[in-house]
């Protein structure tokens, strides 16, 4: 069983990224097999429970009120509608339901409604995840007591590149929320976005930050930027697909027992590229025709891809040390 490290140094991470592709894939796949069923992929479905009109300026995000992405804002969704969407996701094969809200941070009264959603989704027998922005300690505690399984809060990129993308909250704000979630005993879902014009060092530093957290996040979503018209990052030079696959492989090596999720951007990826991501150690996806506001592959396409690759769904997180 591989040892979990939390003391990664930048040159080591860079050296992993620079390995010959076959060596990198072999190392990642070997660790993957030591820790997981290599043909099993965990399936999460997303729902935007509150859409658009967000006060933040995240340069990638169509939900910021500052950019004209043509999105129609929607208030917090009625609970029954959320439960109906979760039921549909479960019937389609999802094991986890992730609810996202376009907030900088929730108001205390929002938390009661989110807790009711969490309880309704759990009653269907699904794992629950929410992503609501920054949390206070009391809010985190209430989510824990409400039975929440996972909280998603991404670091997004390296600390150095962060201010190029977001100015309305700091990297430290994110680390503080992550620490509150961890301390409350909620599983952590934390990753980032690549393809935002960051450098190779930024990608290495993002993974280093994630792996050097006191405990590895149970879920690590690796998103490829979905370029949306009207957002500042629209028109960014696309990332070399092989570099994306390398990023997945290095994440697998550094966090060998975490679920590495091949997240946003699959709609723009070929089946062959996704197959290489699974070989590199990705073992979770977002499933369903929509991410939060943008398109995801159609479910029948994913089911066909799973059949072609001999993949099956299932699984949860490993206990972390
Ligand atoms: N508002 C909350 C927050 O920012 O923490 C929760 C929702 S926010 C949409 C969740 C995450 O989605 C972001 O942290 C970012 O990593 C990801 N995301 C948003 N827009 C994206 C895009 N265009 N491409 C890839 N990932 C994106
Ligand atoms: C994550 O890392 N990616 C998801 C989820 N966590 C919340 C969101 C992706 C959003 C892509 C753009 C959109 O659909 O709005
Ligand atoms: Fe708002 Fe979250 Fe989008 Fe940033 S990523 S603009 S905080 S919804």
Main attributes of the structure:
single chain; 321 residues; alpha/beta; ten-stranded parallel beta sheet; 11 helices; 39% helix; globular; binds S-adenosylmethionine; binds 6-(5-methyl-2-OXO-imidazolidin-4-yl)-hexanoic acid; binds iron/sulfur cluster
Structural summary, described in words:
- This protein has eleven helices and ten strands.
- It is of the alpha/beta class.
- Strands 1, 2, 3, 4, 5, 6, 7, 8, 9 and 10 form a ten-stranded parallel sheet that branches.
- Helix 1 packs across helix 8, helix 2 packs across helix 9 and helix 9 runs parallel beside helix 10.
- The longest helix is centred in the N-terminal third of the chain and has 15 residues.
- The structure holds S-adenosylmethionine (SAM), 6-(5-methyl-2-OXO-imidazolidin-4-yl)-hexanoic acid and iron/sulfur cluster.
- The site of 6-(5-methyl-2-OXO-imidazolidin-4-yl)-hexanoic acid has 17 residues, from strand 2 and strand 7.
